[in-house]
C-alpha cells in the first residue's frame, strides 16, 4: 500500500518536474535554440569587450537582428 | 505612481495571452455551461495571483544589477521569440484575429460540478496566464515598478474579460498576431536595454535608448515581413504558424 502510494507520488512529482522544465525550455529556448544561443554568446562577447575598454552596447541589438533573420530564413526555406 | 512604459508594455503583453485565455473560457462556458467553467477559471486566476505575489516579493530582494542582467536576458530571448512569431504570422496571414476555438461537448452532467469544464477552464487560464505572470513579475521587478505591472495585467484581464463576456466575436477579431509583434518589439527593446545595463554598460542617451531600440526592432520586423511576403510562393503559401 505504502510502496504503491510512494510510486504514485514519485510518478506525479517526476511529471511535475518534467512539465516545469518543459515550460522553461519553451519560454527561454522556444522553437529555435540558435536565437537564444546567439543572444547568450552576444552578451558574453559584449561583456568581454566592455572589460577591455571597448564600447560594445551596439553588439546585442545587432546580434539579435542577425539571429532572427537567420532563424526566419531557415524556417521559410 | 504609475510607470507609463511598464504599464503599457505589461498591459499589451498580458492582453496577448488573455485574449486566448478568454476565448478558451468563453468557448468552454458556452458549450459545457458557465458555473463549472467560471469556477475553473477563477481557480486558475487565484493560483496565478499567488504566484505573482510570491515571486514579486522575492525578486524585489535581489540587487538591481543582477536582476536586470538575468531578467533582461530572459525578456531579450523571450521578446525575440514573440517578435519572430509575430513576423511569421503577420507575413503569412496579415492582421487577422485568431477565430473561435472548438471545445468538446460530450458527457455534460445535468447537475453538480462538470469537472471537464472546470479542468479545461483551469488549464486554459493557468497555462495561458503563466507567461503573463512571469512577464509581470520580471518586468515589474527589473523596472522597480511592480504595482504598475500588476495593475496593467489586472486591467488587461478586466478589459478583455469584459469584452469577452459581452461580445465574444469582438475578442476573436482582435489581431493577436499584430499585438504579439508589437509586444515582441517592446520586450526585445527592454530586454536588450536591461541585459546590457546589467553587464555594467551605459547606453548613450540613457533611458531614451529604449525608444531607439524599439524603433530598431520595429524596422527589422517590417523588413523581414516584407522579405517573407516577397519570397512566399502563391502555389505553396506559408504554413499557418502554430498557436504557440
Structural overview:
The complex is a heterodimer of chains A (77) and B (244). With 77 residues, chain A is mainly alpha-helical. Chain A has 2 domains: 1-30, no CATH class; 31-77. Chain A is built from 3 helices and no strands. The longest helix of chain A is centred in the first third of the chain and has 27 residues, at 2-28. Chain A is elongated, with a radius of gyration of 20 Å. The mean pLDDT of chain A is 86. By secondary structure, chain B is mainly α. Chain B contains 8 helices and no strands. The longest helix of chain B is centred in the first third of the chain and has 30 residues, at 64-93. The radius of gyration of chain B is 19 Å and the shape is globular. Chains A and B meet through helix 1, helix 2 and helix 3 of A and helix 3, helix 4, helix 7 and helix 8 of B.
Task: Please indicate the count of domains of chain A.
Answer: 2
- Report the total helices of chain B: 8
The portion of residues forming beta strands of chain B comes to under 5%
Percent of residues in helices of chain A: over 70%
Main pleated sheet of chain A: none
Strand content of chain A: under 5%
Compute the CA-based radius of gyration of chain A: 20 Å
Q: Which structural class fits the helix and strand makeup of chain B? A: mainly alpha
- How many DSSP H or I helices of chain A? 3
Helical content of chain B stands at: over 70%
Number of strands of chain B: 0
Low-confidence stretches of chain B: 100-105, 239-244
* Rg of chain B, Å, rounded: 19 Å
Structural class from helices and strands of chain A?
Answer: mainly alpha
Main beta-sheet strand count, sense and barrel state of chain B: none
Element order, helices and strands of chain B?
HHHHHHHH
What would the average pLDDT of chain A be, to the nearest integer? Answer: 86
| Head-to-tail CA distance between termini of chain A | 56 Å
Report the order of strands and helices of chain A.
Answer: HHH
Shape of chain A: elongated
